[in-house]
């Protein structure tokens, strides 16, 4: 079978960033707190990011937030608007499709994300012992990779996640690199006439390739919240989340694992948005 690029030829409008959907459709606030916050553009090396800082005299926990297939800053910014009012700072990060960085989801160096941690570790208003990460869809790959590579990440949220790394969008190579080398990744099987969910599902049937591309979840240094879609028509996020649960239990993972699933498609829905939003905020407030 022909190895094809992950999501090549897929319509962008079908790949709705889940947090943009949640924030735009659902006015919502937890009863606990409502902090005012300031937003500033990050000036550090080649990072493209905005920092959302709640106003307080104490050092703050922080979440590194980024999107998936859509690229840019919008999803990171949506996270900032959602989480910062609850007393947790947010670094809304772009890793492609912005000036000065890659324009496509191809060969993204994980060192870029590690530099984001370095920036936060040296920020005078951030508690560097309390850093989390949130990523959705293809961003879940970066979130899992980062958390498994760097123990400074202490809490993880992923939505419609993958358990493995995939090829990039425009070239038959891994979407991710470390030390200049490709991180093992899968390409899509079947041709572009097949349903996307079938192309991912068939690729995941190759156990040898899956084992090579599987994230080292056992190295993650904190609790994990996974949010999946039972009727996902992009990739099987529900089954992959269940597989991650089984894997971590087999490794006697010492941190808490929560998997919440919804009977929706990849982008979730207006009806499920309030509960999803609340669970993400509560996860970070309680674990950082």
UniProtKB/TrEMBL annotation:
Keywords: Hydrolase. GO terms for molecular function: fatty acyl-CoA hydrolase activity. One of its GO terms (biological process) is acyl-CoA metabolic process. Pfam families: BAAT_C. SUPFAM superfamilies: alpha/beta-Hydrolases (SSF53474). InterPro entries: AB_hydrolase_fold (IPR029058), BAAT_C (IPR014940). Gene3D superfamilies: alpha/beta hydrolase (3.40.50.1820). Residues 108-267 form the BAAT/Acyl-CoA thioester hydrolase C-terminal domain. This is Alpha/beta hydrolase. It comes from Thalassotalea litorea.
């Amino acid at each position: 079978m022909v190895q094809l690029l992950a999501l090549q030829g897929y319509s962008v409008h079908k790949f709705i960033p889940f947090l943009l959907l949640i924030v735009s459709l659902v006015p919502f606030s937890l009863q606990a707190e409502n902090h005012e916050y300031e937003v500033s553009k990050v000036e550090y090396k080649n990072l493209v990011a905005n920092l959302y800082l709640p106003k307080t005299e104490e050092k703050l926990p922080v979440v590194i937030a980024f999107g998936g297939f859509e690229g840019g800053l919008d999803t990171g910014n949506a996270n900032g608007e959602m989480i910062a009012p609850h007393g947790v700072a947010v670094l809304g990060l772009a890793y492609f499709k912005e000036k000065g960085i890659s324009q496509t989801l191809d060969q993204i160096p994980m060192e870029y994300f590690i530099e984001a941690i370095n920036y936060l570790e040296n920020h005078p208003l951030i508690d560097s012992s309390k850093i989390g990460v949130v990523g959705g869809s293809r961003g879940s790959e970066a979130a899992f990779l980062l958390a498994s590579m760097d123990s400074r990440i202490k809490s993880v949220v992923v939505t419609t996640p993958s358990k493995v790394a995939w090829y990039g969008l425009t070239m038959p190579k891994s979407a991710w690199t470390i030390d200049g080398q490709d991180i093992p990744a899968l390409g899509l099987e079947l041709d572009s006439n097949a349903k996307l969910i079938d192309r991912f599902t068939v690729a995941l049937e190759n156990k040898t390739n899956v084992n090579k591309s599987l994230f080292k979840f056992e190295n993650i240094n904190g609790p994990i919240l996974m949010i999946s879609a039972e009727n996902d028509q992009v990739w099987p996020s529900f089954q992959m989340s269940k597989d991650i649960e089984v894997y971590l239990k087999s490794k006697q993972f010492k941190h808490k694992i929560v998997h919440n699933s919804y009977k929706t498609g990849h982008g979730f829905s207006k009806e499920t948005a309030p509960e999803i939003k609340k669970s993400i905020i509560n996860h970070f407030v309680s674990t950082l």
